[in-house]
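Worked Example 4.2. Consider the chain below.
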Amino acid sequence: MLKVVRQEDFTYRVDGKKRSYPGVTTILKSIIQPYGFVQESDLIRARARGTAVHRAIEIIEGFHGNLTADFDPRIEPFLDEYREIKRLTRFVPIGFEVAVADPLGGYGGLVDAYGHVYDGQEAIVDFKTGIPPWWCNLQTAAYAPALEKTIGGKWAKAKRFCFSLTGKGRSKPIEYTDRNDIHKFNNFLSVYHQMADAGALRERAA
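Applying the procedure from the previous section yields the following structure tokens:
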């Protein structure tokens, strides 16, 4: 069991120690740069929408207060899609937005949700409001062992899903079944640490 805290700079600290670990999405985006041709204003809107949908899902699942009068009705189609995906997968959430870490691997992350699907099988879920990036399989693969190391249990071999919520009635649960995904992520992780050691990440950010 680990106590993992997400920092304001999206790094993760474990058990109060000074060392911080980069997040899974930071690692992947630093190398892939999937948003290179997206306007910053579009990114800001997408992030705000995603945050609002995530929080609303937590509320309807009973993890936070109640939906208030200032609830944005534009989010409702996303919630309807979530309810349908939940019905299809029989998803029963245990926790949302859980900070996790794999100190040996040298990374952390924020698991959108975890719980059980179908006949009680462990599952890790990442929410995407829009078209999921191609690397979501690597993202969830990295979360699985980190979740197990953080909270215990048997999550390293959990089923992995992206719940793709479009708000247009075309949502679907995407399951990732390739057990080699964790090895693929580890390749990115190795490159990231090499770049960090060489100062290439700072140069890229400049």
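The chain is about 40% helix and 25% strand. The longest helix spans residues 40-60. Compare this with Example 4.1 before moving on.
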